[in-house]
Amino acid sequence: MSNENNSVNILNATVTEAYDESSIQVLEGLEAVRKRPGMYIGSTGELGLHHLVYEIVDNSIDEALAGFCSHIEVDILPENIIRVTDNGRGIPVGIHPKMGIPTVEVVFTILHAGGKFGDGGYKVAGGLHGVGASVVNALSEYLEVEVHADGKIHRQRYECGKAATGLVVVGETDHTGTQVTFKPDPTLFTDTTVYDFDRLAKRLQEQAFLNAGIKVTLTDLREENGRCETFHYEGGIKSYCEYMLNKKKERKDTLNALHDDVIYMSTANDDSAAGVALQFNNGYDTQIVSFANNMHTIDGGQHEIGFRASLRATINAYARKFGLLKDANPDLKDDDIQEGMIAVVSVKLKDAQFESQTKAKLGNTSMRTLVHQMIKEKLMDYLENNPNQARTIVNKSMAASAAREAAQKAREASRNRTSLSKARMPEKLTDCISDDNTKNEIFIVEGDSAGGSACDGRNSTYQAILPLWGKMLNVEKARADKVFSNEKLTPVIVALGTGIGEEFNLEKLRYDKIIIMADADVDGAHIRTLLLTFFYRYMRPLIETGHIYLAQPPLYKVSKGKQHMYAFSDEERDMQIEQFGGSGNVDIQRYKGLGEMDPEQLWETTMDPEQRTMLKVEMADAEKADQVFTLLMGEEVEPRRKFIEDNALNVSNLDV
Hints:
Number of strands: 22
Strand content: 15-25%
Structural class: alpha+beta
Largest sheet: 9 strands, mixed
């Protein structure tokens, strides 16, 4: 009852309050930006902090697009102060005819003021909104601008968005350009004001790729021996495409391009220009990055839609024209064609329309048409003039299509198998008696011999045994259809009951603990790694929810008379020998494999919950783990073997 009364009181108070001219608040100057910074830079966290730098750099990039700037320098000064210097024309310093103050002051203190409106300043610019410089000024504790123009150095200082000094001449100069120095306001950026060098470097490198020939230098002066990197690429987005392929090669040494040169296409009209660089490779990953007026459109937009649609239509048209696709064959899909493709799509246009100030998605439908028509004409010309490369590209797409269809069939078959009753479980599975899935555990054992010992030594009430033979499929190097139909992986999939990939359902898991039990040698470590790779790729929730374990069988049995101890390392063995009085008084048995242990020994050392030691597999950083697995699954055998020998128990952040 009291809640209802409170609601009435609040409603009455709202209705009876005066609402007249005095109720309308007017925020003057840049107060609106300081009041609601997220509306202008997305957030006041780390992303917004770095966005301030991008806004100032974008103004220098616009000078480069106009043909007046060749070098941009970005310095991170002590106290995380940013200084951006370019050799462009310099912001105009004369009195603005409408505002009656220096034009540079207009640029830094008035929203929607700049050379990006109308036809007088820039034909192509980074954004429609024209708020960059003034927003950075508004969100800075202080900002100083220094303009080199007409033989003089002009300087002005602002504090919290307002002019603290007039524009004054402080010296003479023999060049032109603009230097902006600012310190983000810590009262607004309360999470952090510390700049990340690598984050800035990535963005500045993109700008150098997107503007062929321009030089961009980033220097960290926060420490005495700070970092410095210079980005300069004459090849533009062709160089960008090559760079991305080389980065992938660093992770996977078998990755190779399907054609010698990057496919580059460009077109332009009075108001717009578009360029696309393409590189197909023998891998499976797709990487498409798109830009509009040098802004990374992370959410795509019309230019990317036009590219994807025209790429699909053109490849299919070529394949049918030259008989690679028969009438009975369905068209290749986007995923088929884009498998193993790296692409950079860059457009520049006069009136760019973005969905927000952060410019994540391009809305100009004219760019969809421009890019679509360019791909249709120029990619077809390339394919027809390079028939060998064209056939290789189409054959790769057709193989991807066949794999996709096979994977779908195998996935359906796997789903059907995993829904079967216990009576239809894998032939080699020796299941447990209990139906309590929250307490049962399954040992995936290397080899039939070890599997036999495990079956005889287990507690049959809650422990199941599934022996595997030989080394299973390396899923890092296989398409999905091979995984779904592999004879060594299928028993694991069926026994666990969850399905895999898109069909995975953790609620159907038949065992609480999945324990990989392999020999304590290099080959055993390799098998563990292959299984972990499989779980990571196709059953990742098992790792994320803590269901995967590694058994730890001993390496030695140290005995004296009827007394014995088990050692799990050479160091532990030596300590036990000393405890028994020295090497002359003991017998030492070296276990070469699990099959050499009798059932009692295997239970006592490796399977008994009261005595065993196991490693629980955890996935604290999925991206880092992905890189480790890629390294482990590379083609170079000896480096991989050495890595496994050195790190077999540390893969994927394993903790006891």
